[in-house]
Amino acid sequence: MSYRFLKGHGTENDFVILPDPDGTVHGDLPAERVRALCDRRAGIGGDGVLRAVRDEDGRWFMDYRNSDGSVSEMCGNGVRVFARYLHEHEGADLPIEVATRAGIKTVTRAGDGLFTVDMGSPEVLGDTKVTVDGATHEARHVSMGNPHAVTFVDDLAEAGTLLEEPGYDPAVYPAGVNVEFVRRVGEHHVEMRVHERGSGETRSCGTGACAVMVAAALADDAPRGTTYTVDVPGGTLRIEWTEGDRVLMTGPAVIVAEGRSDL
Ligand SMILES: N[C@@H](CCC[C@H](N)C(=O)O)C(=O)O
């Protein structure tokens, strides 16, 4: 069966987009199809899949899958790419409300190729530990709808190769965790690497960058309304935690190709 796809990325966190407006093209979207599409040698290649399907209210739902086929609640880079796809290929007006497993996210245009997404309120859930390359690090547990462990390091090389999943406490994260390693660059400016649950090391993670910003702002005692610059291997994100307890993330969204696949 041949079906339409698009390919896009946000700060080089890349996705295969699968249009499926009435849910009849991909059904439950088998994990094997996600893995085949995301395969960088035998497939199209991607850190995940964004299936675009309308929900019972007619609102677009972002059905997000990691490259190993697992389901996640949210994808911050993905929702900007998703909104751009909906605007430019499905005629949706901006701002647009996108339904996700972590609730409705509103995406607005913020400039040339830039989009801002209201990521909602973070949940700061205490302290935990992660282990990488035999070293154990203190980490902060932050939920952006999906789970994160944020750890501050002096040098991002401390994260090692990240070819293997960092160790974490399964009692804290029964469904796994995304782990961010963060180095301070300057005032309200950090850089990070991430090991994503279900995808391995990626060049960016939007929810991860938001979790990092929240952890940094708390550590700095920064007033609400402060904007942080978060550098990721694939680019830069600007993130504000507002007076109203909303996390607003601004970054690029790019569509690079469109075609048909029978994977
Ligand atoms: N890259 C995404 C996050 C994707 C989901 C994550 N791997 C999970 O399993 O929670 C982002 O930009 O937020």
From TrEMBL:
It is found in: Cytoplasm. The record marks H148, E196 as: Could be important to modulate the pK values of the two catalytic cysteine residues. It comes from the Bacteria. Pfam families: DAP_epimerase (PF01678). InterPro entries: DAP_epimerase_AS (IPR018510), DAP_epimerase_DapF (IPR001653). Keywords: Amino-acid biosynthesis, Cytoplasm, Isomerase, Lysine biosynthesis. HAMAP family: DAP_epimerase. PANTHER family: DIAMINOPIMELATE EPIMERASE, DIAMINOPIMELATE EPIMERASE, CHLOROPLASTIC. This is Diaminopimelate epimerase. The lineage of its organism: Bacteria, Bacillati, Actinomycetota, Actinomycetes, Propionibacteriales. The gene is dapF.
